[in-house]
Amino acid sequence: MSDTPEVHSSNSAPASAKRTSVRLLQHVDPTREGMRQCLVTRYADRHGFTIRDVTVAEAPAVLYSGVIDHQRPPEWAGTVVGLTGVQPSVANRTAAAALLLLVDGEVFALTYGLGHHLIAPGYLAPGFGLAFNLRALGPGAVRHVTHTAMDARGRTDRNSVAVDQRIDTFGIEQYGEIVTRLVGKPKDIPLTFTQGRSRTAQITGSDSLRIHLGQHPEALVADLREILRIYREEKEDTEFGFITRVRPLKSSDPRRTELDTSLDAMLGPDGPQERLALTVPTIHLDGEEATSAYVLKVARARHMLTGDLALDPVRDAVAGLEPGQRLKALKRGSIQGYADEEATEATSSAIPAHKWIAAEANLGSSRFFHHEGQWFEIGDQHTEILHDQVDAILAEPSDIALPDWEPEQKDERTYNEWAAGETEGYTCLDRKLLYTQQHPHGIEGCDLLGPNNELIHVKRAASTAPLSHLFQQGRIAIEALLFDREAREKFVARTRAVDPDRELPDDWLPTTVVFAISLPNHENVSSRSLFTFAQVSLLQTFTALRNLGIKVAVTNITTVK
């Protein structure tokens, strides 16, 4: 190969454009040697791919291309042989190319075929295409959205419409779901494919950007320069502001290593405990009320834990391990719930132990939280917005005023029974599970039913981390009582059986939910005391229930030492 880069340019630049996959690279030295460091070289070693230094217009570039020739028939060939007795003369051959270009100090990768496999994942800037679309799409010009629930349910929704729409018409939970892909029409931006055309092609933004780019060297570089300008300088359209509030960190994000190291240190004997807690994963919410014991398997040991699951025994199980091994041990270990203390009747699957750990950490000015095994980043500019929205929820008035939590009330069940007896108009329904076809493990409609049939969920917590579970539990109960006739009928029957004097009509529907919380040291719930993911959970619950016509309030219970 010649040391002289191949140069391609054109004096004529007709406005032809072709749909292309574009990725922005990160942590790259802005030289051809730096670009080469981003390439997965095994394709050159195994399949003879070539790497060439080239120049596109004035932009230094590297072209990596070739054919993956497996020299073996495709997987389906065996099925054809079995059905027909004929061996088809076919083999898999796949072409791929990646063109890396340096434009204004940044490296772009244009990929063709399976060319995205040619670039090491750690160099791909996460969310680049989505971030571009938040700045480039026109108002009310969204055609397709992919969004994923921010929990262990694993639910991903893909919604498409035939005509342009605003993002808020897609029913996305603004703090409970993550938008990962956005498709729509751009506003008036000076790119090759927008010039001289009455119809504008759609652009797709996720980690990559699918967009029509100029097919002549000067037009291509000009397009990339304009894309970079929009990405760097333009502000997100206010229509999309909520999308960047909370973002998951990709597995290839180098910050995850530093955050995992921080979490591993928190799990150690001298680690800071202020922002570390244990929470119930979403996948176990339905079975949690029926759970009396847990089996913790970690570091080749089996621990039987009875009663309410707490952080200390989980942390103690790994605290003695060497630094760097504690979090790994939890990832390899598991926690499983059981209805009995002999651990014979499981209420959950064996859930990886690290998914029960909640934590918060800062890197520089950025804030991150660990929730259900995943790291999330909350945008700096949105932290105060989140605080303000949570404070507004906490300021919602409530007619519920529960008595102080006295020392003799050792647990929630004792307190609920005592409070119902001491306070007129309250009925204790703690641990009165409703077993339905939709909820075979049982759900708890509420802990206390208030004077005006308010559903009151009571929680005594050593920190605010477990409150995310409380908020989710309240939402599950409300949705069941609203939409599951079997649950509603059983709730009415159970209430009448416990308190025959209470008037609860057959056609009763819930209207109000109250979260009654007792924190240590006379602390009140506030946006500053709540774990970030607990704030997200509260806001998510509040928004969802308000949309169902349910009033939501939070009240504090004073703890007496």
Largest sheet: 11 strands, mixed
Count, helices:
14
**Structural class per helix/strand content?**
alpha+beta
What shape does the CA trace take?
A: elongated
Rg calculated over all Cα atoms: 28 Å
Number of strands: 27
Helix content: 25-40%
* Strand order of the biggest β-sheet: 1-3-4-5-6-2-11-10-9-7-8
State the separation between the terminal residues, measured CA to CA: 80 Å
Query: Per DSSP, what share of the residues sits in E-state strands of 2 or more residues?
Result: 25-35%
Low-confidence sequence ranges:
none
Write the layout of secondary structure elements.
Blueprint: E1 6-8, E2 17-24, H1 32-37, H2 42-47, E3 50-56, E4 59-69, H3 77-84, E5 93-103, E6 106-113, H4 128-136, E7 137-149, E8 156-165, E9 177-186, E10 203-205, E11 209-214, H5 217-233, E12 246-248, H6 255-266, E13 276-278, H7 285-288, E14 293-298, E15 301-306, H8 311-319, H9 326-332, E16 334-338, E17 351-352, E18 357-363, E19 366-371, E20 374-378, H10 380-394, H11 412-422, E21 427-428, E22 433-434, E23 443-444, E24 448-449, E25 455-460, H12 467-483, H13 485-498, E26 512-518, H14 532-547, E27 551-556
Parallel strand pairs: 1-3, 25-26, 26-27
Antiparallel strand pairs: 2-6, 2-11, 3-4, 4-5, 5-6, 7-8, 7-9, 9-10, 10-11, 12-20, 13-18, 14-15, 14-16, 16-17, 18-19, 19-20, 21-24, 22-23, 24-25
Helix pairs in contact: 10-14, 12-13, 12-14
